[in-house]
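User: Here's a structure from my thesis project, written as structure tokens. My advisor, Dr. K., wants to see whether a designed sequence matches the one we expressed. Can you design one independently, without my sequence as a hint?
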């Protein structure tokens, strides 16, 4: 038996999603990234005596949206608590969070592990999602051996999303994190910028022999890339297995991942809930969310990814693979649907191929988001229309697309006219060109009649070259085979 098969891995993720609000969760200070240190910390954020927190309504709206998106229970009444601990970047000496009664409970997320035909679907249950404030940041660089404190992040609104320990490999954990990352951006509650700390994951990892009780978990903190998450979890799994097999006991701990060494290292022993001395915050009233508020938020939400995937398959006849790719982001889905609106529902498949192919490749090459594509959905739809009605071939369409991308025209028809790219579909004209090609390439003709299929392809190439790629390729194939008696 393979060594890893003797062990079962158990993983749960805690994710901090920074909410897209203009101001902080309990103060009016801005949340924009990149300000000078302590330039966005007001009296509430730095805990001056006598200040009082005031809850940001928009942060609650974000929590409601998330609860609706994952099919969770939204608490009609939830409580804010004080989580007590003492760090230099926590001015109050406590963090305002939620403990016993969170705003969102339950729900789950459907994930895909792997790609294409080999992909496997899994449902990951969620424990809860609660609102809380972020702490400040300790800065250790360029302070001549000292530490600086930047309180700009103090009070930034977070939604902490806690999964059940349902994942059994690093691949499943990464698939879940990616699905969650896509969802919070889709519903507009988080910008998902991992480099700026808007989406951070902590992974709780333990191992056990199949059938045994849960093992002791260690928490890997602040994973801010999917690649690092996979590396950190894989290393931690192997480390824990080695420790147990060598007769040592796993101690509950918080660990950090070092990308330079590819290893996790212990940071501190892991605290339990009682260590934080949670108690209800006396400065904040219970948060009450009535049914009509939930209904109002629901009415303003976009169609969710799962529903849109199903609709793309049903309405456009797309494969599950295409539907998943086109709903990777809401902006991609909207771009596709706007393209189909121009080209027509019957052209959904070629539209999908162009969005996933040529458009995606160029955006990736130039580091652009689809919202910044130089070729608009209207322009791409016009290209597809001319492919479908045989005005241009797929090859010529790529030239038209290139011209539109470079701003050499406002629409496909204009580019086709200006560059003389209209496809030759006149059978008589194509037949005349084929006769000339056959006369000039007798050797290829003889080779084809001797059974060499490659010679036929060479003749097709010569015919297409003679027409500068403007002939309809299928007509060239059909007429050429007829001439050769094939």
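Assistant: Designed independently from the structure alone:
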């Amino acid at each position: 038996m393979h060594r890893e098969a003797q062990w079962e891995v158990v993983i749960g993720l805690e994710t901090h999603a920074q909410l897209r609000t203009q101001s902080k969760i309990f103060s009016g200070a801005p949340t924009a990234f990149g300000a000078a240190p302590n330039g966005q910390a007001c009296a509430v954020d730095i805990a001056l005596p006598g200040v009082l927190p005031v809850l940001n309504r928009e942060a609650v709206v974000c929590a409601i949206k998330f609860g609706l998106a994952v099919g969770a229970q939204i608490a009609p009444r939830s409580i804010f608590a004080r989580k007590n601990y003492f760090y230099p970047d926590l001015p109050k000496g406590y963090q305002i969070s939620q403990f016993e009664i969170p705003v969102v409970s339950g729900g789950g997320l459907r994930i895909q592990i792997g790609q294409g035909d080999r992909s496997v679907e899994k449902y990951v249950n969620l424990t809860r999602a609660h609102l809380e404030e972020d702490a400040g940041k300790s800065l250790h660089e360029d302070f001549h051996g000292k530490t600086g404190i930047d309180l700009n992040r103090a009070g930034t609104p977070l939604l902490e999303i806690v999964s059940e320990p349902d994942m059994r490999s690093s691949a499943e954990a990464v698939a879940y994190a990616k699905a969650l990352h896509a969802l919070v951006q889709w519903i507009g509650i988080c910008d998902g910028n991992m480099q700026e700390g808007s989406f951070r994951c902590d992974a709780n990892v333990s191992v056990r022999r199949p059938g045994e009780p849960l093992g002791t978990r260690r928490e890997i903190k602040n994973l801010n890339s999917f690649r690092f998450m996979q590396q950190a979890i894989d290393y931690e799994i192997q480390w824990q297995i080695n420790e147990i097999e060598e007769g040592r006991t796993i101690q509950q701990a918080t660990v950090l991942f070092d990308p330079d060494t590819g290893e996790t290292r212990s940071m501190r022993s892991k605290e339990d809930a009682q260590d934080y001395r949670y108690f209800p915050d006396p400065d904040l009233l219970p948060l009450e969310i009535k049914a009509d508020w939930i209904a109002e938020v629901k009415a303003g939400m976009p169609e969710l990814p799962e529903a849109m995937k199903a609709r793309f398959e049903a309405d456009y006849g797309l494969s599950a693979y295409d539907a998943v790719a086109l709903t990777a982001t809401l902006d991609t889905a909207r771009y596709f649907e706007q393209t189909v609106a121009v080209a027509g529902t019957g052209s959904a498949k070629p539209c999908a191929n162009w969005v996933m192919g040529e458009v995606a490749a160029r955006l990736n090459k130039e580091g652009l988001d689809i919202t910044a594509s130089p070729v608009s959905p209207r322009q791409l739809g016009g290209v597809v229309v001319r492919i479908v009605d045989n005005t241009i071939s797929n090859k010529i369409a790529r030239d038209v697309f290139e011209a539109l991308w470079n701003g050499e025209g406002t629409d496909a028809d204009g580019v086709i006219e200006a560059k003389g790219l209209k496809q030759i579909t006149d059978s008589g004209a194509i037949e005349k060109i084929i006769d000339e090609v056959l006369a000039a390439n007798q050797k290829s003709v003889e080779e084809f009649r001797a059974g060499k299929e490659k010679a036929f392809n060479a003749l097709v190439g010569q015919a297409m070259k003679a027409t500068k790629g403007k002939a309809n390729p299928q007509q060239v194939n059909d007429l050429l085979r007829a001439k050769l008696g094939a």
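When you compare it with your expressed construct, this may help: The chain has a mean pLDDT of 91.
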